[in-house]
Specification:
Elements lengths: L11 H7 L35 H14 L2 E5 L2 H9 L7 E5 L3 H12 L4 E5 L4 H7 L4 E7 L11 H10 L3 E5 L4 H4 L9 E5 L13 E5 L2 H14 L5 H12 L1 H20 L4 E5 L6 E6 L2 H7 L7 E2 L9 E4 L14 E5 L5 H13 L2
Helix pairs in contact: 1-2, 2-9, 3-4
The structure holds pyridoxal-5'-phosphate (PLP).
Length: about 350
């Protein structure tokens, strides 16, 4: 496949369309076909379906080119997270911001079994994060914007401070995507994605990915993926790559919609607070009571009350309906994942529901 991992050569919208394709030769298909195979005729490089699949390689080449590193596909974002946390020895520390509840859940689970020490920090407080780092720190785990608090982290400052104490830095880039933020260019060691969200983008796939700058770290992670078997199906990967082709377009449209909705929500009297960092298509609103938040999420025609995010369709939910959600998240907070519909229709639907509160 053509090597498009030269970010300076082509722009992201072009890379998203052209990376991970078969060569331009007569009778080659334009897209890598789905190969449903558990085993291959022996003696070659492939051998077995847990080690490789053409769709994984095409997806990984494309995501790697977009993030500026080497990518590895996983069965889910959580499978990717578990594989990364397995890099950490039992007595070392992971410093983590208020993050996705599944990340927090894995850290708490490991801590309860003595397999890691966790220090939780507020990523928007740069000084506090730096103060939590020391020579026992193996990993600094960042999300920016955070899910669902929508805080931003000063990535370059935090990455530099973590490297000063010898820690590796993971940035969960699920919300921003490589279209808006490329953490490896800012010095991060590892990027994590729930490909379930924006990368696949159509609410029909569960998948994850890791992207790293250092090829030797890629080899280690590939070895663990082979060993543990946290691999995605060929069809899921094919769908995720199909989604990736339109990522730049979808992000452009959904981000413009989100900015416009944030502006209008600010002016609505039923809304106490709007959290919109001005980056991407995710935002959150805080309503006066949890009851109002529940009512809002059940009073719309277009907006779907659903968890997850990053699809072409707009969805929203009150996050504290989940028992594992952090106590810092207000009871009345509704997280909105803005889709690519016409923004006038999205606003009309939200406004009629807010007017009834
Ligand atoms: C959904 C999500 C994950 C977990 O990914 P899955 O694909 O659901 O396993 C990790 N991080 C963030 C920010 C997410 O939103």
């Amino acid at each position: 496949m053509a090597d498009l991992a030269k970010p300076a050569a082509l722009r992201p919208s072009t890379v998203a369309v052209h990376a991970g394709r078969p060569p331009h030769e007569p009778d080659q298909p334009l897209n890598v076909p789905i190969t449903m195979a558990s085993t291959y005729v022996g003696g070659g490089d492939k051998e077995y379906g847990r080690y490789t699949n053409d769709a994984w390689v095409a997806f990984e080449d494309t995501l790697g080119a977009l993030e500026g590193g080497k990518a590895l596909a996983f069965a889910s974002g959580q499978a990717a997270t578990a594989t990364l946390l397995d890099l950490v020895d039992a007595d070392s520390v992971v410093v983590a911001g208020q993050s996705y509840l599944g990340t927090a859940g894995q850290l708490a689970d490991r801590e309860s079994r003595g397999r890691v020490k966790t220090r939780l920090v507020d990523v928007s407080d740069t000084k506090a994060v730096i103060a939590a780092l020391d020579e026992d720190t193996a990993l600094l785990w960042l999300e920016s914007p955070t899910n669902p608090g929508m805080e931003l982290a000063d990535l370059p400052a935090l990455i530099a401070a973590a490297h000063d104490v010898g820690a590796r830095v993971v940035v969960d880039n699920t919300f921003a995507t490589p279209i808006l933020q490329r953490p490896l260019e800012l010095g991060a060691d590892i990027v994590l994605h729930s490909a379930t969200k924006y990368l696949a983008g159509h609410s029909d796939v569960v998948m994850g990915a890791v992207v790293v700058a250092d090829p030797s770290l890629w080899d280690v992670l590939k070895g663990r993926r082979d060993l543990y078997g946290a691999v995605p199906g060929p069809f899921e990967t094919w769908l995720a790559l199909r989604g990736l082709r339109t990522l730049p377009l979808r992000i452009e449209r959904a981000s413009a919609n989100a900015a416009e909705l944030a502006r209008r929500l600010e002016q609505h009297p039923a809304v106490t607070e709007v959290r919109y960092p001005g980056l991407g298509a995710m935002l959150a609103v805080v309503l006066a009571t949890p009851e109002q938040a529940e009512l809002l999420t059940h009073s719309t025609l277009l907006w779907v009350h659903a968890t997850s995010l990053g699809g072409v369709e707009s969805t929203f939910e009150r996050r504290r309906r989940w028992k594992g959600e952090a106590r810092e998240v207000p009871e009345g907070l509704v997280r909105l994942s803005v889709g690519i519909e016409d923004v006038a229709d999205l606003w009309a639907d939200l406004e009629q529901a807010l007017d009834r509160l």
